[in-house]
Amino acid sequence: MLNPFEDSDAVKKAASSAAGALDGTGLRIAIVSDAAPERNGVGAYYRDLAEHLKAVGVRVDLISPRFRAGHWYGGLPLPLPGDPTQRFVLPSLPLVMRRMARLRPDVVIVPTPGPFGMLGMVLAKRWHARLVVGFHTHFERLAELNDDWVLRGKVAQAYLNTCNRALFREGALVLANSDEMLDIARDIGAKRVGLMGTPIPKAFLDTPPQPLRQGVHRVLFAGRLAPEKNLGAVVDAAAALPEVQFHVAGDGPLRDWLEEQAERLANLHYVGWVKRQQIMPLIDGADVLVLPSTVESFGTIALEAMARARLVVVSSQCGILSWESLERGLFQIHPNETLADTLARVRALDHAILQRKADIARDGARELNARNLRHWLRVVRDEDAGGADDVSV
Questions:
Q1: Quick one: which of 276, 278, 219 has its CA closest to 246?
Q2: Fewer Cβ close by (within 10 Å): the C or N end of the chain?
Q3: What secondary structure does DSSP assign to 203-235, as a single string?
């Protein structure tokens, strides 16, 4: 598979001047997703991508459920057994139809195999729009880890494989954000696949980051409180390093358990659910962000912390390690280490080395964001359609 993200002087120069050279005027894109921008990484991905596309002149409509002030909008919310913090939303057909008719999209992007995504696939045909499929989550693996999740076992596999096969069959291109996810997409039936980067909120890039403080005293985890995030490793690290303050932000099925652990450990603090506009100050206030997940197709929060020039520790299961330009700015939990061991190793390093690592992280994040925007524009313009089975975005 050709990879236009590989390091070269020409690519780096093109990436550094991308913002001024890009022009998406005349393009009309509908993003139809089951993921609410306020609730998870997939939703955040397409909200951030839409923001960058609009900045270069593209007309974009993000059609998805919305979560505001404790209420769900955009359709009929149904409870999701096993996770009271989430909802399964059936889209309002008249609402979606009106928005699609107003936009008359050239391209429809579908990143989820739920009701919104399947409706997006059908409406792409209606408007003779090119269908691009985003493949972000290996739901079958998540079902194995979540015993109470409604989509599990044979029912989950049958439903998800049916929906994904339909999307992959109709889609002109299937995009994933790691090599492992590309292989899974091919196994499911994708014929033409490509590697995509991850966008970063503009404010994270435009606002100068704070220099690293001396020493590592404040550790942050931010994300869904679910089994695949391996929160036990965070709790164990807090117990092993009582002199370090650990802060956990998010919501999910393990919230009650985490609150119990926070009551037990004086240096473990549960922040709760954090609004999107509060994420950047939360990251800036930390010395290290940790992501010890057992299943993580990419790890958007890790990239956002890199953009803010923070130290970032990730497990070997995080897809972000697939990107060589980003791996250089990350600390990886080694196979023979616990999260506490890795943090102790990081804390033992000289401050100048840590600051250099943080600078490398920010440079890598900025470079990936610029190139990702350029390649997304190539995809929606169908400039990569040369008959190859695999393309990179």
A1: 219
A2: N
A3: HHHHSPPPPPPSS--EEEEES--SGGG-HHHHH
Tell me the CA distances in angstroms from 180 to 265, 364, 375, one per residue in order: 37, 21, 20
Q: What is the pLDDT of residues 204-226, one digit of tens each?
A: 999 999 999 999 999 999 999 99
The answer to whether domain 9-201+368-392 and domain 203-367 are alike in fold is yes
pLDDT per residue as tens digits for the range 161-187:
789 899 999 999 999 988 888 998 998
Backbone angles phi, psi at 25, to 5 degrees: -55, 135
Q: What is the DSSP letter of 295?
A: S
Q: Tell me the residue ranges of DSSP E strands in 118-181.
A: 130-135, 173-176
Q: Give the global pTM.
A: 0.76
Going from N- to C-terminal start, the domains of the chain cover 9-201+368-392, 203-367
Q: Which two tokens stand for residue 374?
A: 């350029």
Rounded to 10 degrees, what is the CA torsion of 221, 42, 150, 316? Answer: -50
- For the domain made up of 9-201+368-392, the CATH class stated in words is alpha beta
Task: Look at the domain 203-367 and name its fold.
Answer: Rossmann fold (3.40.50)
**CA–CA distance, 106 with 121 (Å, rounded to integer):** 13
DSSP notation for 352-383? HHHHHHHHHHHHHHHHHHHHHHHHHHHHHTTT
Question: Please, which residues have CB within 8 angstroms of residue 331's CB and are 6 or more apart in sequence?
Answer: 311, 312, 313, 314, 342, 345, 346, 357
pLDDT tens across 265-295, in order?
999 999 998 988 899 999 999 999 999 999 8
Contact 163, 151 (CB under 8 A): no
C-alpha angle with apex 246: 223 to 310, nearest 5 degrees?
70
